[in-house]
C-alpha cells in the first residue's frame, strides 16, 4: 500500500517532528546541534520557509514552519538528507538516522499558531530537562 501524499499549498503552516531511528539520539554533542541549525538555516533560506520556532531534543526535533511557496517536501528532504549525511560522515556511521518519514501536521495559523509555539518552546520543560523556560536552548 502506498503512503498518502502530503497536503502542500502556498501559505501552509506545519508542526513537523522527526525522531531518531529506534528512538536513538540524533544529536550526540554540541557540534551536531550546530550542524543541524546550519543545515536548517540554509533550507529555510533556499526554500523561502518561515521558521516560527523550533526545539531540538536529543532524539528528536520539532519545527513550526510556514511554506509561502507550498514546497515542504522538497525542503524537508534536503534538511533530513543533508543532516544525515553530515552526521554519518562525522560519526563514521552508515544508514538511516531518522525513524521513517517526518510527521507534518497541518496547523490552523489563525487559531493555533501561538499555542503551538508555546507547546514547542516548552518541550524541554515538559520533558523535565529544565525547570524554567528561560533555561531552554538545545537538549
Notes on the structure:
The chain is of the alpha+beta class and 139 residues long. The protein has one domain (12-133): Transposase IS200-like (Alpha-Beta Plaits), CATH 3.30.70.1290. The protein has four helices and four strands. The protein has a four-stranded antiparallel sheet with strand order 2-3-1-4, sandwiched between helices. The model has no long low-confidence stretch (mean pLDDT 91).
What's this, in brief?
The chain is of the alpha+beta class and 139 residues long. The chain is built from 4 helices and 4 strands.
Layout: helices, strands, pairs:
Layout: E1 12-19, H1 30-47, E2 50-56, E3 60-67, H2 72-90, E4 103-107, H3 109-121, H4 123-126
Antiparallel strand pairs: 1-3, 1-4, 2-3
Helix pairs in contact: 1-2
Structural class: alpha+beta
- The total count of strands amounts to 4
Number of domains: 1
Mean pLDDT level? 91
Low-confidence stretches: none
At the third CATH level, what is the topology name? Alpha-Beta Plaits
The CATH C-level class name: Alpha Beta
Question: What's the story with the biggest beta sheet?
Answer: 4 strands, antiparallel
What is the H-and-E element order? EHEEHEHH
Which superfamily, in CATH terms, is the homologous superfamily? Answer: Transposase IS200-like
- The N- to C-terminal Cα distance equals 37 Å
Helix residue percentage? 25-40%
For this structure, the quaternary state is single chain
Strand content: 15-25%
CATH architecture: 2-Layer Sandwich
Total DSSP helices: 4
Shape: globular
> For the CA atoms, what is the radius of gyration?
15 Å
Strand order of the largest sheet: 2-3-1-4
